[in-house]
Design a protein that fits this description.
- The protein is mostly helical.
- The chain has a single domain, classed as lambda repressor-like DNA-binding domains (434 Repressor (Amino-terminal Domain)).
- Helix 2 packs across helix 5 and helix 3 packs across helix 4.
- The longest helix has 19 residues.
- It is globular, with a radius of gyration of 14 Å.
Amino acid sequence: MGQSRQSLLSIDRKKYATAMAENLPVLRAKLGISQGELADMIGITRQTLSSAECGSRELAWNNFISLLYIFTQNEATLPLLTALGVYTPELDSLFRKTDLNRLKK
């Protein structure tokens, strides 16, 4: 088992998902979109997104990944992700070094 795979599988997903959820209002505001619009973009209900934002529900990892993709593809929010601790150099390194073929085995 490669080191990248071990690190990706053992990453503290809750830490990253919590950081994303806590900062969603700021990130959404930077893009000028509502909870409903963002929820539609990632295929969840506005209520699910709202619950994650207010901390009454944990943000699912697959939703974190979807949100991360949206916010890393935007010049206005990409620097914020790093500044807010949502997208760390550790996480960036893990995503860039993941050998998807090894994960299929």
